[in-house]
Design a protein that fits this description.
alpha+beta; Ubiquitin Conjugating Enzyme; Herpes Virus-1; 5 domains; five-stranded mixed beta sheet; three-stranded mixed beta sheet; 17 helices; 25 strands; about 40% helix; EC 2.3.2.31
Length: about 575
């Protein structure tokens, strides 16, 4: 014989409804069924008036969070319809959003730490007003939550039951306690929330093959239900609500942007450039400006999180939202090229420009799968096994002679030839005058300054003398490399001395003419300077910055100078006596 089919599990909503209705007190007269129903349905006028007043107060405070059959009655009463034609007990559901100050809640499963949240999800209060509430009977209550074990919700029901006193409505007070104090007193005392016991009610599986008396008693006294199947699902709902609420709270408040340093930027105008790798946020205007500038300059390797010490790469979807379609397409192309260029064994076919992987035997041979051309990856010519590859100087001479000897070259061939010549000239210049970045092989030539270089392609710091990647300045203190070359220091000193002599001559000439001379200091480099003949616009001899001697602010040449000086409000006079 086939085994009996397993009965379908009743939904927890049906079990909760049955438990609430089973706790309604029967009428005192059991002789006639009609008289019993009438007594259960019809409360006295004072109780009915108190119930309606409390429903209207709940509706006015909680709004759409009040649902169920009684919510429509409360809505009509709040709208001015005083005719209550409803008979029977009031049944309603109320969503309680836990209004509490943000505070850490440590979530544990089986005693082990699982997560930390700040904003717990709401709970649902299910209630029925008996016919003699509030004069003689308390309200019938039950709680449901997706993140609380039944023991916690039942403890909260016990606390709320103790708030009722005969003759006084208490559900409004209970709702306030749930919103303000229930987390600290019942749900997560001491800031610790245990998810043990978070599982959906299994009504027909306890107490015997069909549920038995234990399940029937449990359903009859049911007051707390966890709507999650297990502790892991409860944890997932906790984390999801916490993340959504943090985003909402951040969006409605003002914050300080770490780039433009504005203090009153609304959170909704901030952008997480590098989610989910980091949580740093900056205003959309700064992120858009920075991303657009770096993409158009081609320095996509420097497009990282602006937070100091972070350096997380940007999220493509965020870039898509802040960049124009043309700039985003350029970013994708440049990023792909940088990724391919970072592969030491990848080269491009000199004929069709298709990416090619070098053979692994070290002979620098590339075989293009598109045009079947075998070439040398060093000189980009046909593969020449056993021969020494061309030097940059020799290769440049070969390219020039090829151009002079081929007058029938087409436009596309001429373009590609010019590109090859430019590449060869750039490579020769780098080999003679500069260094290559140790990370991405970008050519760098130092014009002046110290030996700590910053690659414009990938942002790598490296030593210009030995070519090694460096972090900080320890390399120049401990090794053989110096931060400044002696000839660079001597050149700088000669330049500064010459500039100082020129400034001294201008001061002497002003004295000879009888002009007014007053000493001041540059607001940028703090070197001594002189205001000559009542002119407040001073050029610093040391850092070559123009500044205003009246307000001691740096004033750049051009439009900024014209806007700074004048006779209007907020402007400085360019010529004034001390």
């Amino acid at each position: 014989m086939e085994a009996d089919a397993e009965p379908e599990e009743e939904p927890w909503e049906l079990k909760l409804e049955r438990a609430l209705l089973s706790r309604l007190a029967p009428a005192p007269d059991d002789d006639e069924e009609e008289e019993e129903d009438a007594q259960i349905i019809a409360p006295n006028e004072e109780d009915r008036s108190a119930q309606l007043d409390e429903l209207m107060a709940l509706k006015s405070i909680f709004g759409d969070d009040l649902r169920g059959p009684a919510a429509a009655v409360a809505a009509s009463m709040c709208a001015g319809d005083d005719d209550d034609e409803t008979i029977g007990a009031f049944r309603f559901d109320l969503t309680i959003r836990l209004d509490r100050e943000p505070r850490r809640i440590d979530v544990r499963i089986d005693g082990a730490p699982a997560a930390t949240v700040v904003y717990p999800p709401p709970v649902a209060l299910h209630a029925i007003f008996p016919r003699d509430y509030p004069s003689a009977s308390p309200p019938l209550l039950a709680l449901t939550a997706s993140w609380l074990p039944p023991e916690a919700t039942e403890a909260a029901c016990d606390t709320m039951a103790a708030m009722w006193t005969p003759g006084a409505p208490a559900v409004f007070e209970m709702a306030g306690w749930l919103a303000e104090s229930s987390v600290d007193e019942c749900f997560a005392p001491g800031g610790v929330l245990n998810l043990e016991g978070c599982n959906l009610l299994q009504g027909g599986r306890k107490g015997g093959p069909r549920g038995g008396t234990e399940c029937a008693a449990r359903t009859t006294t049911l007051r707390g239900v966890c709507t999650s199947r297990d502790a892991q699902e409860a944890l997932f709902r906790l984390l999801r609500h916490d993340a959504v609420e943090k985003e909402r709270q951040f969006a409605v408040r003002t914050h300080r942007c770490g780039v433009c340093l504005e203090d009153d930027v609304l959170g909704a105008d901030f952008v997480r450039l590098c989610k989910p790798r980091c949580d740093h946020r900056f205003c959309a205007r700064c992120v858009t400006s920075q991303a657009t500038l770096m993409v158009r300059d081609g320095t996509v390797g420097l497009l990282v999180c602006p937070e100091p010490g972070c350096g997380a790469p940007p999220d493509p979807e965020v870039l898509r939202s802040v960049l124009s379609p043309e700039d985003y397409a350029r970013w994708e192309r440049l990023t792909l090229e940088r990724s391919l260029d970072a592969m030491s064994d990848l080269v491009y076919c000199p004929r069709c420009e298709a990416p090619v992987i070098e053979d692994g035997d070290g002979d620098h041979c590339g075989r293009c799968a598109s045009c079947m051309f075998a070439f040398c990856s060093l000189c980009r010519e046909s593969w020449h096994p056993g021969e020494t590859c061309l030097t940059p100087e020799r290769r440049l001479r070969v390219l020039e002679s090829r151009r002079l000897g081929d007058a029938a070259m087409g436009d596309d061939a001429r373009r590609r030839h010019r590109e090859q010549v430019a590449d060869a000239m750039a490579q020769r210049y780098i080999d003679r005058e500069g260094k290559q970045c140790p990370r991405c092989n970008t050519g760098v030539v130092k014009s002046e300054g110290c030996n700590k270089m910053t690659c414009g392609g990938c942002g790598c710091f490296f030593c210009y003398k030995c070519g090694k990647e460096v972090f900080g300045y320890e390399h120049f203190r401990e090794g053989d490399c110096s931060l400044f070359d002696l000839d660079a220091i001597a050149a700088w000193e000669r330049e500064m001395n010459a500039a100082f002599v020129v400034q001294e001559n201008r001061n002497r000439d002003a004295h000879v003419r009888g002009g007014e001379v007053r000493q001041t200091r540059c607001p940028k480099c703090r070197q001594p300077n002189w205001k000559l003949e009542r002119n407040n616009h001073v050029l610093c001899w040391s850092c070559n910055q123009h500044f205003c001697c009246a307000c001691m602010r740096v004033v750049r040449r051009g439009q900024e100078t014209r806007d700074h000086y004048g006779t209007g409000p907020g402007k400085c006079r360019q010529h004034s006596a001390d």
